[in-house]
Amino acid sequence: MAALVPLPVNRVFDVAIVGAGLCGLALARTLTARGLEVQVIEARDRLGGRVRTEHCEFTGQALDLGPAWFWSETEPRIAALLSDLGLTSKHQYDPGDALWLSDPNREPERRIALGGVHAGARRIEGGAARLVEALAAALPDGCVRLGLALRALRDRGAFIELLPTDGHPLRARQVVLALPPRLVHEKIQFDPPLPAAVGEALAATPTWMAAQAKAVTTFAQPFWRTAGHSGNAFVRHAQAVLGEVFDASEGGAGKDHAGSGHAGALGGFVALNPAQRDNFKRGLPLLIDSQLAQLFGPEAHDGHLFLLDWAEERWTCSTIDRATAPEPPQADPLLRQPLWAGRVFLGGSETAAHGAGHMEGALESADRIAHALCRPTATPGSAPVPATLHLARAADGTRAEAIAAFATSVLTLRGMAPERYRLHLTRLLSGQQSELLTQRALLATADQVYSETLARLDHLLPALGAASAEVASGRHALTTALLAPFGGWNKGLLDAALRFNSTSCALSNFPLEHQLDAETLRAATLDLAAAWREFALELNARLLVASGVAAVM
Question: For the whole model, what pTM was predicted?
Answer without folding.
Answer: 0.84
